[in-house]
From TrEMBL:
GO terms for molecular function: FAD binding; oxidoreductase activity. Residues 1-201 form the FAD-binding PCMH-type domain. SMART domains: CO_deh_flav_C (SM01092). This is Oxidoreductase. It holds the Pfam family CO_deh_flav_C. SUPFAM superfamilies: CO dehydrogenase flavoprotein C-terminal domain-like, FAD-binding/transporter-associated domain-like.
Amino acid sequence: MTEPTRVAAAGGTVSAVLPFLAGGTDLIARAAGEWIDLRDRTELTGIAWQPDGSARIGALTTIAELARDQRLRAAYPALAATAAELATPQIRAVATLGGNLLQRNRCAYFRAGFACHQNGGACCPAREGIARYGTVIGSGPCVAPHPSSLAMALLAYDATVEVEGRGHLPVASLYGEDPTRDHLLAPGELLLGAELPPPVAGERAAYVRATGRVQAEWPLAEAAARLVVAGGSVVLAAVAAGGVARTPVRLPEVETALLAGAPIAEAAARAATRCAPLPETRYKVALLTGTVEHVLAKAIAD
């Protein structure tokens, strides 16, 4: 997985614009050339805990570390569960938080070199071709879903990210509807890490992904849910979805329904109200609502 591009300098003079190399699980597979290796930036690794119980996760922390850290699993169970389901053990051992947040999309047309918005073209060939893996939320020019599961989980926690030179920003500010880009960091900007607010007592959480095969597959739809239940009622709800839009998304209509006392199935069905599917992604409407219903039921049972 890749970090953003950065201006490389030698003797104070700008020499080139090169991509960062973190885990490299996607960058090396996609492109040949030179990179700026971040693996000696040890200050970007690990999980640091603050006195109030909040956590800062360095951008170079591996997915495997997130999945196995027992304190993280207790404090932020939806994030840890999401990390544990990603890719394969081999990928999780080298892929990083920063790389997952800033990776490129998986569109087969883009990856095969077809002219498209992502590589300087003026169209989206998936719209007129094979789009069964495309978006179901949003109507922008590009229909490639954003692939970051961890961004989705961090959205559910109202986390922030730290960008060198810009300070702390909401996770959502990394992403937008620009069809030419999968994230909004500019060349020269480095993602340093993510910060989560203090844990919530009594949180129930879960993560669910719908895939075409059991392992080593990108989700067609996925969801993370955080709930606090008191007196038989949901008093806190945070639900996010991935694999369905150009950006990871929160589902406020589902959250509002849960807080109003709606049954799980009824609340999950509210996710369909924002869907604008392509002809080949109509199936994802039911897949999304089913995935949300499943994750809510799993969280309630936690």
